[in-house]
Design goal:
- This protein is α/β, with parallel strands linked by helices.
- It has 3 domains: 88 residues, NAD(P)-binding Rossmann-like Domain (Rossmann fold, 3-Layer(aba) Sandwich), CATH 3.40.50.720; 216 residues, Mur-like, catalytic domain (UDP-N-acetylmuramoyl-L-alanine:D-glutamate ligase, 3-Layer(aba) Sandwich), CATH 3.40.1190.10; 132 residues, Mur ligase, C-terminal domain (Protein-Tyrosine Phosphatase, Chain A), CATH 3.90.190.
- Helix content is 35%, strand content 23%.
- The protein is built from 17 helices and 20 strands.
- The strands form 3 sheets. Strands 7-8-6-9-10-11-12-13-14 form a 9-stranded mixed beta sheet, with helices on one face. It has a 6-stranded mixed beta sheet with strand order 15-16-20-17-18-19, with helices on both faces. Strands 3-2-1-4-5 form a 5-stranded parallel beta sheet.
Length: 455
């Protein structure tokens, strides 16, 4: 038994507090340490549960005495305290790993990828919920996994997971793992080595066996390259836009594809079909998300009629190609969640009108080459929204005639509106993190929407 062993939680936000509550239930000696200020709602949860904590700094002696440390996914490996714990040989795990150890019989559909995670997670959850399943949505969207286990365990967990959460797993094993795509992101956390980031994403399959299912994108170059040299134990199902059900040693004819504007989901002899025009969310990226969600739902035993119904009733997520308003013939679209270049590619690809693009923020080592052709084809002006915009100017000044700088959402909206004409679209799709000017991407999107409404 692990009775009264010392559990230290580093970070007291959603995942940390969830792990603390679960640790308390499982009779660990729990202590929470946060270098910053703990949000009032989380402080109250800890106090109500009688869990000891500190904020505004770390007491090294107490942390180094831990038998197990659960660290926030936001804490990088290069943090001094993590280096000391590693040197001492202390076990460190992520909150999803800690939750997995106590989840009981519940089944997990875990979804990762550089883009589309939140939409696909919410869509998969929506299908299972519509079908009457006992299901919760956890991870980076909804409750933390550990907190859900404490408050209301369910038969199914649909989980959005990031590479940071997958970095510190040991036994975490989803029944269904979904890898949507891989494009450069968060390279600052991976020593600017793309191969390290790719490996982190594939950690989702690390502990899977032949009894499990891995669902992934046949059209993604990085995924296909990795699979050539890294065999996957789980049964692998592909989704594709090319209807190329090419077999390898792990695949079979089940999977999902689009053909002649029809979306097909094939599983165990049943072919679920519907027109892509009947999907409630539009754009090629959402066809990929729908295929991934649909095949995940079929592996969970959900029938075609429920999947079709769910696809037509699903409401997209805030800050992801969210239509805001039309002002004097100019459409405004909030895609603040687009924090990398590949997200912007999908956003621009789905635009049918001339675009005034609001771009910029905290650059994570962006290479804009990927969107160069789409920008040349569709973008008439760029409004920079960030403290340091020189990379955007350098790359796009020979392609886009108008590039202006702003440092607030209100100014960005006013500048974009002045550059737009009737039947244009103003698209906030920044390709960058938001922390230079905003609390997070939600704050950036909310301020954008407020600025549009005040026009």
């Amino acid at each position: 038994m692990m009775d009264r062993k010392k559990l230290v939680i580093l970070g007291a936000a959603e995942s940390g507090v969830g792990a603390a509550l679960l640790g308390k239930r499982e009779l660990w000696d729990v202590w929470v340490s946060d270098a910053g200020k703990i949000k009032d709602s989380y402080r109250k949860m800890l106090e109500d549960a009688g869990i000891a904590f500190e904020e505004g700094g770390h007491t090294e002696e107490k942390i180094m005495a831990a038998d197990l440390v659960v660290k926030s996914p936001g804490i990088p490996e290069k943090a001094p305290m993590i280096k000391k714990l590693r040197a001492a040989g202390t076990e460190i795990c992520s909150e999803i790993e800690f939750g997995f150890r106590y989840k009981g019989k519940g089944k997990i559909i875990a979804i990762t990828g550089s883009n589309g995670k939140s939409t696909t997670t919410k869509m998969t959850y929506h299908i299972l919920e519509t079908a009457g399943y006992d299901v919760s949505m956890v991870g980076n969207i909804g409750n933390s996994f550990a907190k859900q286990i404490v408050e209301q365990p369910t038969e199914w967990y649909v989980m959005e997971v990031s590479s940071f959460q997958l970095d510190d797993i040991q036994t975490f094993r989803p029944d269904v793992a979904v890898l949507l795509n891989i494009s450069p992101d968060h390279l600052d956390r991976y020593d600017y080595k793309y191969e390290h980031y790719i490996k982190a994403k594939f950690n989702i399959t690390r502990n899977q066996t032949a009894e499990d299912i891995f669902i992934t994108n046949k059209d993604d170059k990085e995924i296909n390259q990795y699979l050539l040299t890294h065999p996957i134990n789980a049964r692998t199902l592909f989704f594709t836009m090319n209807n190329d059900q090419t077999n390898n040693q792990h695949s079979d004819t089940d999977g999902a594809f689009t053909e002649n504007d029809q979306l097909h989901i094939r599983y165990e002899g049943e072919d679920t079909t519907m027109s892509i025009h009947d999907l409630s969310v539009k754009g090629k990226h959402n066809q990929y998300n729908s295929m991934a969600a649909g095949i995940s739902a079929r592996t969970a035993g959900i029938r075609s009629a429920k999947i079709r119904e769910s696809f037509s009733t699903f409401e997209g997520i805030a800050h992801r190609l969210e239509f805001v308003a039309t002002v004097r013939g100019v459409d405004f679209v909030n895609d603040s969640k687009a924090t990398n270049v590949n997200s912007v590619w999908f956003a621009l690809e789905s635009m049918k009108k001339p675009v005034v693009l609001i771009l910029g923020g905290q650059d994570k080592g962006n290479d804009y080459q990927e969107i160069k052709d789409l920008v040349a084809e569709k973008v008439k002006a760029i409004v920079c929204l960030g403290i340091d915009n020189k990379n955007i100017h350098t790359f796009f000044e020979s392609i886009v005639p108008n590039i202006v700088d702003t440092q607030s959402a209100k100014d960005a909206v006013l500048a974009a509106y002045s550059l737009a004409e009737k039947n244009d679209v103003v698209l906030l799709s920044p390709a960058c993190a938001s922390f230079d000017l905003f609390k997070n991407y939600e704050d950036r999107g909310d301020q954008f929407k407020e600025a549009v409404k005040s026009l």
